Amino acid sequence: MSITYSKLALVALLIPTISYASEGEHDDEHHDHDEKKIEKIQVTASRLGRIVTESATRTEIINGEEIQEKALMRPGNISMLVAETGGVRVQNTSPALGSANIRLQSLYGRYTQLLSDGLPLYGGQTASIGLLQIPPTDLANVEIIKGSASSLYGGSALGGVINLISRTPSDEFEGEVLFNATSKNGQDITSYFSSPLNESTSASLTAGIHNQEQQDLDNDGWLDMAEYQRATVRPRVYWESESGANLYLTFGAMKEEREGGTEAGATVADGNPFEQNQDSLRLDSGFIFDQPLGETLNLNVRGSAMRQEHEHVFGLVTENDTHDSSLLETSLSGYTNDIAWLVGVAYQSDSFDSEEFSEFNYSYKVPGLFSQIDYEANDDMSFSVSARTDWHNEYGTQFSPRVSMLYSPENWVIRGSYGQGFYAPTPFIEDIEDAGLSRLASFENIEEEQATTASIDISYLFDSVETSVT
């Protein structure tokens, strides 16, 4: 049996929603001219850091209160956190291992770019199990951009972006430890500590230990819940000078052993046990440096590097592989009364090396040039235009534009968006999580995938009820 690579399918969605807010509460998508009632959340996923209610690029926000609620319910990973957002679905990709990825507006999970504070710390293409290895303990909020965001983040963001924003330390020491146990013999211990180190420097530390015993709930010999043991640690350092310059540093390490397939001692139809295991080790680092240049200009330099090692077992087949990715980016931004703009250059690399199946190895080097302009025409209308050109070493020159519009008269909020993007093929389609590279047909005459996405979002607020349709 062979698994072949399929072309991208475009899916149109109609998602009506109705939400209720008590007096004094605020929904992020509602534009209210009474400043006292607006919770001004600044979004960074759209690059220029606009207020969410004023940004032409629709950005869904999961706030800190909701994150705390979901972290208490599932402290081991962020799957529950993002799954309850409209147009977002967490899809199981391997029942044996319990792996899952994030689908935005029905596009495959491999087209979703997962970021941490704007950095691709989990790689250019986040593995399905990677979603289950990120604890929500240190998150302040989550930003979600649906639809092609290649104009902002390149080919890894064909379907959209999920940006995990970490908590920043306060002026005093903070610490919390969460112990969790489940009725299915799972345990989690997560902790978060932050403190100022001196007048200009502060730091935080997040660490966790997670365990789940194997569970065969229907006694058929196949595990319904994979067994795993995982440890994570992430220190962060924040520095700010008197001149307004600031530096952010982060380092991360994750080690996990995960076992699925048949229960220990059990056999399947052919009389043999079937193991499906994965051992993972991920190391990453990143930095962001901001330097104001006068009153209206700002220089931003950011970079990251990640290395991930896997050992897979699919029955009698063992696969060992290594993923490496890195980013270096510099941008200059500025603003006037009505216009905010940004222009930057970036260099991204992404490589995969399999010891047993070297025919699927790749090494992508992608320099790029990007820009964005936000224009506020009046109190009710604003526009955002962004574009990016990437020079891919394997798939040539790629141009990715995106145009967004916001119109908000009185109680109405209307947003429209149109974008194009590309995706450089990799062997990591959803079927691979369950079958492995040994069952994947070899690549022949593969071309880059391209997509055009468009959406219209209409919301209307009357009293304390908001209704919206996408």
Please work out how many helical segments DSSP would assign: 4
Shape: globular
- Helical proportion, percent range: under 10%
Can you count the beta strands? 22
Order of helices and strands: EEHHEEEEHEEEEEEEEEEEEEEHEE
- Major beta sheet, strand line-up: 1-22-21-20-19-18-17-16-15-14-13-12-11-10-9-8
Distance between the termini: 40 Å
Low-confidence stretches: 1-40
| Strand-pairing-aware structural class | mainly beta
**Beta-strand residue percentage:** over 45%
Main beta-sheet strand count, sense and barrel state: 16 strands, antiparallel
Q: Average pLDDT value?
A: 83
Could you tell me the radius of gyration in angstroms? Answer: 23 Å
Summarize the structure.
This protein has 470 residues and is mainly β.
Secondary-structure map:
Layout: E1 16-20, E2 60-62, H1 64-73, H2 79-83, E3 88-94, E4 99-104, E5 112-116, E6 139-146, H3 150-153, E7 160-166, E8 174-181, E9 186-196, E10 201-212, E11 227-240, E12 246-261, E13 275-293, E14 297-314, E15 317-335, E16 339-354, E17 362-376, E18 381-392, E19 396-407, E20 412-423, H4 432-435, E21 449-462, E22 465-469
Parallel strand pairs: 5-7
Antiparallel strand pairs: 1-22, 2-6, 3-4, 6-7, 8-9, 9-10, 10-11, 11-12, 12-13, 13-14, 14-15, 15-16, 16-17, 17-18, 18-19, 19-20, 20-21, 21-22
What features would you describe in this structure?
The protein has 470 residues and is mostly beta strands. It contains 4 helices and 22 strands. It has helices spanning 64-73, 79-83, 150-153, 432-435; strands spanning 16-20, 60-62, 88-94, 99-104, 112-116, 139-146, 160-166, 174-181, 186-196, 201-212, 227-240, 246-261, 275-293, 297-314, 317-335, 339-354, 362-376, 381-392, 396-407, 412-423, 449-462, 465-469. The strands form 3 sheets. A 16-stranded antiparallel sheet has the order 1-22-21-20-19-18-17-16-15-14-13-12-11-10-9-8. Strands 2-6-7-5 form a 4-stranded mixed sheet. A hairpin with a 4-residue loop joins strand 19 (396-407) and strand 20 (412-423). The longest helix has 10 residues, at 64-73. The chain is globular. The protein starts with 15 loop residues before the first strand and ends with a strand.
